[in-house]
Design goal:
The chain has 117 residues and is mainly β. The chain contains one helix and nine strands; from the N terminus they run βββαββββββ.
């Protein structure tokens, strides 16, 4: 094994090894591309992903993947509702998407309940 292999980004294990184009951690089973880890670490900014792993950015259109209850509303947000022109923020309790939904107004959503359209 080479001493220049990076530690695992998930569990920080030093026992990583190369498998074709991927790096693999035998302790936690995490696999990643070395170039991917370099770009994320070098950017210095948080990467927000949707429920299926697509990277989100400001101005994207997303679809709600599960029904959501809304305080103060008799009906909630139905699965399949499209939300246009999202804005990524550092929200409270994991709510990292700021948006406006027709019929409900401005609100914040968690990235885990949306899918990039």
């Amino acid at each position: 094994m080479s001493d220049t292999l990076p530690p695992c980004p998930q569990c920080s294990s030093e026992y990583t090894y190369e498998m074709n184009a991927l790096m693999v951690c035998p302790e936690c089973g995490h696999e990643w591309a070395p170039a991917e880890a370099d770009t994320q670490a070098g950017a210095g900014e948080r990467v927000i992903k949707d429920s299926v792993g697509n990277v989100l950015s400001d101005g994207d259109t997303v679809t709600v993947v599960k029904a959501l209850k809304v305080k103060g509303s008799a009906s909630g947000i139905k699965a399949g509702t499209k939300v246009r022109n999202i804005r990524l923020v550092d929200g409270v309790d994991g709510h990292d998407i700021d948006c406006r939904i027709e019929g409900f107004g401005a609100m914040q959503l968690k990235s885990g309940v949306v899918k990039k359209a």
